[in-house]
Amino acid sequence: MNDALSDTRANAIQVDHVTLELGDRAILDDATFTVRRGEFIGVLGPNGAGKTTLMRALLGLLPLSSGSIRVDGQAVVRGNPSIGYMPQIRSGLAGRRVRGRDFVAMAADGHHWGLPHASPAVRADVERVLDLVDAHALAARPLSELSGGERQRLLLAQCLLGKPKVLLLDEPLISLDPRHQTGVVDLVRRVQRELGITVLFSAHELNPLLNSLDRVLYLGKGRAALGTVDEVITKAVLSRLYGSPIDVMRVNGRIFVMSGDVEIDKLDHAHEEGDEGHEHEHEHDHEHDHAHGHKAKGKHTHNV
Ligand SMILES: Nc1ncnc2c1ncn2[C@@H]1O[C@H](COP(=O)(O)OP(=O)(O)O)[C@@H](O)[C@H]1O
Ligand SMILES: [Mg+2]
User: Fold this and answer.
1) What segment(s) does the record annotate as region Disordered (predicted)?
2) pLDDT in tens, 15-32
């Protein structure tokens, strides 16, 4: 399942016998996998499995206890211009009056003074990324007037500044209702294909990504499994990653990962939206009727 391609230039990310420790816990324990250039990888796994920690390691923000990582053929380095990163915690955006275009520009290197003072190169790059995510209409409006899905579009634009080759998107779907989730996944997939870049997209539900991902990287119990959905989303692999018996059910093109009669991803993350202040954020959403749809969904199978 883990490719060991000899040509490193063909690979976007090579993780070779990597151990990552936080405190006295091994978040990853001797993990080896290779992401090829131009792949859209869904990064899944229970809460606390290490999705965020892995992304931080790829960014050089966390020392490796052992092993090596190469991104775009290069050893890991902080501030790597080849990587665009959307961090998991994005609370507080909903209350901001800053205009969309200025918000995107704020993420450009060395431009903390606002767009009027930006260099022509930065201005051009801002327009380029707004084009890519089709956000020119949003760019004139303040963040506070945008829906969660629209703000996500601008966050993606920020990640694309400087033409990175690899995007690390940490849980872009948290707090979005299902309709907006699909919109964000479709957008990322379109941009990823258009630019031929590599995407690691973490999520706690597989289904919204099913039509877009090339392969899945599933983390759990210090292990990592990378492969196609058919290779990874199986009883045997997931039971190993969760450390307990897991069932996989396929219903109408959707896949449900079950522990007993409980759908495991819903159970795991049921508390998360409130934790990050997204309840408040929904007050500004234009889709009140959908805002809590995700949360209201049952944790049990009978909702299928
Ligand atoms: N600074 C830290 N020190 C010790 N443990 C941490 C630290 N940050 C995160 N952890 C723990 O590391 C594990 C992996 O966390 P994380 O990468 O955020 O998982 P995920 O993104 O998959 O939910 C969790 O058990 C978390 O509690
Ligand atoms: Mg995380």
Assistant:
1) 271-304
2) 999 999 999 999 999 999
For the entire predicted model, the pTM comes to 0.86
Dist CA 88 CA 174 (whole Å): 8
Binding-site residues, ligand 1, Cβ < 6 A = 22-23, 27, 45, 47-53
**Residue of 164, 165, 176 lying closest to 209 (CA atoms):** 176
Give the separation between CA 129 and CA 90, rounded to whole angstroms: 20
What are the tens digits of pLDDT across the range 220-276? 999 999 999 999 999 999 999 999 999 999 999 999 999 988 888 766 555 444 333
**How many angstroms does the Cα of residue 280 sit away from the middle of ligand 1?**
25
Contact 53, 20 (CB under 8 A): yes
Alpha helices (runs of H) in the chain, residue ranges in sequence order: 51-58, 100-105, 120-132, 136-139, 148-160, 178-195, 229-232, 235-242, 264-269, 272-275, 278-282, 293-296
CA distance 188 to 168: 11
CATH architecture of 8-298: 3-Layer(aba) Sandwich (3.40)
Exposure of 201 in the CB half-sphere (CA atoms within 13 A): 31
Residue pair 33/218 in contact by the 8 Å Cβ criterion: no
Q: What is the pLDDT at residue 171? A: 96
Atom 18 of ligand 1, residue of closest alpha carbon: 52
CB 169 within 8 A of CB 201: yes
- CA pair distance 153, 190, nearest whole angstrom: 12
pLDDT for the residue numbered 295: 34
How far is the first Cα of the chain from the last one, in angstroms, to the nearest whole number? 30
Choice from 47, 53, 200, 205 to test ligand 1 binding pocket (greatest atom count within 8 A of CB): 53
